[in-house]
Write a structure and sequence with these properties.
Blueprint lengths: L2 H7 L7 H4 L8 E4 L7 H7 L4 E5 L2 H6 L1 H11 L3 E5 L8 H12 L5 E6 L1 H16 L8 E2 L9 E5 L11 E5 L6 E5 L7 E4 L9 H19 L6 H23 L4 H21 L3 H13 L3 H16 L3 H8 L6 H11 L16 H8 L14 H11 L1
Parallel strand pairs: 1-9, 2-3, 2-4, 4-6, 5-8, 6-9
Antiparallel strand pairs: 7-8
Helix pairs in contact: 3-5, 6-7, 8-9, 8-10, 8-12, 9-10, 11-12, 11-15, 12-14, 12-16, 15-16
The structure holds fe (ii) ion (FE2).
Fe (ii) ion (FE2) binds next to α8 and α12.
Amino acid sequence: MTNADVYDVCKDLDFSKDIINFVHLNSTKVIFGPNCVRFVGNKAKEFNATKALIVTDSGILNAGHLDVVLESMNDSQVDCIVYSEVTENPSSYDVNNCATFAKSHSVDLILGLGGGSSLDTAKGANFIITNGGEMKDYRGIDKASNDMLPFFAIPTTAGTGSECQSFAIISDTETHEKMACGDKRAAARIAFLDPLLTTTQPFKITAQTGIDAISHSIESLVTKTKTDVSEKYSRLSFHLINRSFENVIKDPENINARSDMLLGAAYAGTAIECSMLGAAHAAANPMTAKFSIPHGVAVGIMLPHIIKYNSLDNEVADVYDSLIGQCLSERVVELLNIAKIKVRLGEYGITNNDLLSLSEAAATQWTGNFNPRRVSVDDFLELYKSAL
Ligand SMILES: [Fe+2]
């Protein structure tokens, strides 16, 4: 599949080439296609890079994806150092480790290679390497004062869409609270969307990250801060992921389906850049922090309940109805079944006694502020009860 094929795929849809080409991203150029990662060395050279920090995890090393990147960098005579200690849901401690590793090597380019955790760790380390301090100093938007190193994002999952965002999502080591740290200069200068890199994901990762990605389409579509442009990205994202999720689960090596998923996740990431997310993410974050439920699973469990809650607003209900020719919450439950995700909180060890503290934590989540309907502690309590 090439860019031209993507136009072809989308030709029956009402989306302009500007949307398909990600032209609304101010800081990030997106390169898409099988094997496009082989251009990474060439592009690094265009940025006059001499030594790059590659941030990744051991699974990516074992899958052989790092070798492809190193070969390309080597062909372009760009030295590399590799930090492969990335963990799931990276914390400020992890980011510090990565930055400390890099500081002794005078790097002039950062590459994130892996899932959202690798990309966010790389993005976070860029803040610390170039501006010092700690991750919590950059919580919010535009808190950095110095320029940052150029950053290339190479996602190997179709999930967070971090490759198209200027935010690093990092957990506070002490409180486990998720901190969103945003700065336009932290966004990837180039995102390489190579669907071949996503074919090696285990079933669980494909399933959970895919559910996260489609939840980004759905949540970003109706936020208080959505725009006409972000809405188009959300819709295109939903369309691609919705049509290919089942295919990618049944036939993991199907490159067209993998392409839809990877592009869909990136389009949702582009939408989030201005529209942000909503109450499903607010409800999910404490479930991950307190019960270690994977992010995509936690968001997926709560999403049908949030859709029903938001549908009490007629305008929001009309937007949901315009997305697909069936009840949206029912479609999400179908996708969760395909993903083999258990949908009751009780199946994850959560009891009635836990719901109040989860609700209190959910109500303090920044992301909840963008939900189209206000969600109080009592509302979260009802939402968790309905999912119990
Ligand atoms: Fe998410």
